[in-house]
Amino acid sequence: xxxEKIRNLSDDELKSEQVKAAEQLxxxxxxxxxxxxxxxxxLRTLKLDIARIKTVARQRELGLNATPVVAAAPKKSxxxxxxxx
Length: 85
Description:
Largest sheet: none
Order of helices and strands: HHH
Number of helices: 3
Distance between the termini: 65 Å
Structural class: mainly alpha
Shape: elongated
Number of strands: 0
Radius of gyration: 23 Å
Helix content: 55-70%
């Protein structure tokens, strides 16, 4: 799931998506332990999705902005440097 889609979900939807992803992750791990190697790529994407969901939930909990703010570069000094002899 894309990060922007996750940000647009409500808190309840975030929790339900996290539960769904955790259940799928459990099932894929169980299949892997039985020797079924299908879905290994899905395993990685589920882990990433869960991490993204938890990140957005924590940002909301802390009240942080979802969009990063780019700091302006410091202005250059207009003063002339004097050489000392």
